[in-house]
Fold these 4 entries.
Entry 1:
Amino acid sequence: MSRSVLSERLSRLERAGLVARTDQGPGRAGEYVLTEAGRELEPLFIALGEWSVRWLFGDPSPQQLDPGMLAFRMAEKVDTSRTPDDRTVVELRCRNPSERHWLVVDPSGATACSIDPGYPVDVVVAGDTTELQRWFIGRRTFPDALAGGAITITGPSSIEDKFPRWFGPATPWHDTIAQQAGRRPSLVPEWYGIRTSRASRQSPTM
């Protein structure tokens, strides 16, 4: 969902007593945490989410697509045990809507930037925003997206081949989404393997 919709819904949950906003200090965004009442609802929402994935889940509408939020969620799900030891910068070139964002990844974690952080870019990942989100949430494998030209990746082979494995499951229902799409669960290593020949890849353009 878009950042404005997310903010509005978090505010409603806060007023209802289900989440509380914590102060992270000057210049830092606050963090929302579940209250005791919210934690008691967690099993119910997990079950509801599982049901919705099986029966109602579909692609977001164009109005719901937010490349900035996608970049933020990707940074949030980076597993630094799988990333290079040195700082690595990924440029995301999204289309429909067209935006550029950056992921700055190092052993301490990952940060999503909507403004060029000023570091040399190591790898460029480009594609339609819908297709990037479909891959990230588990509806399509990275190799399939590459083979179909929906996503392109340009950079050193040492990064290209491992990039899809940098991320943990995007949601608690990641494996259910994959299964609904006729896919393997995300925790099976082969699920992420890139088997597409680099010769068939296209260079990303904007």
Entry 2:
Amino acid sequence: MNKIFVPTNKPEDWKPLLAEPEKHWKTGYSAKALAYSWQEANDFPGSLKKVFISSGVALFKNVELLLAFPEYQVPLPGGSRPSQNDIFVLARSNDQLISITVEGKVSEPFGDTVAEWRKNDSEGKRRRLKFLLKELELEDNKEINAIRYQLLHRTASALIEAKKFGALNALTLVHSFSQFNECFEDYSRFLNLFNLETKPDSLVFVGTIEGINLYLCWVKGDPKYLTRRAKLMSIRVESPFISRKTAVSWDAAGMTKRRYQIWLRALRKSLRATREYEWVGQSLREGKRLELRASIFGIPQRIRLLDIHDALSQMIDEITECVFPKENGKTRPQVEDRHFWRVEGEKFVSDEEKIQIEIEELGDE
């Protein structure tokens, strides 16, 4: 594992560190929610601090985050793949160090059970499992087979790094943004191995292993990090396209002024009537750059690349008009100020005609 780390300046700096950036860096996914939550706090997120304080454990009452490393790898014996923790944190409280591994979740599971993981048995897998169980002081029995393998190596990682840094305390933290506590049953089953029961938003003391105090914690993250920075809205229309240019030039294809007005009303309602989209106007007012991505679904032969370009350009104007009131007949900022936007478009052939728009804040101009 590389021992040189580069500091991050914004949540997007976390993306290249992911094992599969394009697959996992999406709105509503744990990687992105975790990055925004921790980067904006530049500390333990507020929801986590509340759980620490309410736990009654003196060690976590005034805990201080010293260092946090996204996508932190902990080498394990028995194979070439390390345990890639979403975040590793080195913290301090009462002059004691705490080694913390963080696993972000939304609805994705903790991976295979131990039984599923060792179906294709090998010497390396046997060696690795033996090591993990020894680190956690657990026995290889039928209960272990039902445990999610990921929980074993994430928890062992916290203990391994505690030894490396001379920390007397280790914590494995599940930071779940699921508002329904999805996969909590698997986490609870893991704690049952230590004869413990728990509930969401709680921290528990597991025991002392080789002189290190081990804790586990499940925290429900703020749901705003699932949607605040990128919004997806699907507006279905009954015509091949939705731009003013199309409205006047494609009469034969069915795009009428009436249908265009239906589209515009739907867009305006989405942007003005729903509080979760208020940040679009606020971002523009603050001079921040936004990215507009549109996926256009349409019947074959009706949509050309040039049409996608025209639509994206038109939507920039329309969104700007929707989020800003007009002054003296003109929108502020001027719709020509397209330096606020970066645009991408894709075409998807389908049996229905609709468009999906995703807008994301990129940062300051």
Entry 3:
Amino acid sequence: MLDISLLFKIGATGVVLIVLDKVLKSNGKDDIAAITNLAGIVIILMMVINLIAKLFNEVKVMFQL
């Protein structure tokens, strides 16, 4: 079952990434902003991959005889 708090965590991470991106770009640190965005995307992908792994495990259990 999908936990609604995970959606809020992903949304909050996105908001923090946007704020960091704007602050770093306004200070002329475009390279650090790109690295920060990449790190945030990796964090969000790890959350989603964890959900997909749980889904596959549940499907595997459902089809076992």
Entry 4:
Amino acid sequence: MTSTSLWYFAYGSNLDPSTFLGRRRLRPLASEVARLDDWSLHFDLPVGRGERGCANVRPEAGALVWGVAYELTPEAFDHLDRTEGVPRAYRRVPVPLTLPGGEPLAAWTYHAERGDPTRKPSRRYLGLLLTGARHHGLPTDWVTTLRAWPLAVDERDTQLELFGAASDGGAGKAE
């Protein structure tokens, strides 16, 4: 780690390489599988009018969240803040991570104070987390936890059905 770099803990769609490297165009200096203790994963940040929600973490004694720590330059982190809607949607908070060997790592992550507990991830959004979790080799039990998450009814699918476009198998849909 350089003296000016920062570690960012990704637990949501930024786990997925096509999101983090592709859409966000970020190139981390390094990456490490990491665990955030005493926080829990939620999908309570509203997206659209239906049930869909984006990932968020909340403090919770005894809980844990697996993800990836990316080492970023301050400029890259500022770019990430803008793509994540800081401070409107999330705020950057300091968190203590634990690496698989037990070593501590000081990092920053995104947390939203507000949230709607009735929200759930869409199939597409949860797929990004699962792709990223497998890509980075997150623990199998964490992947199982993610796979078991209840999915939101995606109101966009219902809208497509109204127009007879549901037969395209999901092609062309974007979130």
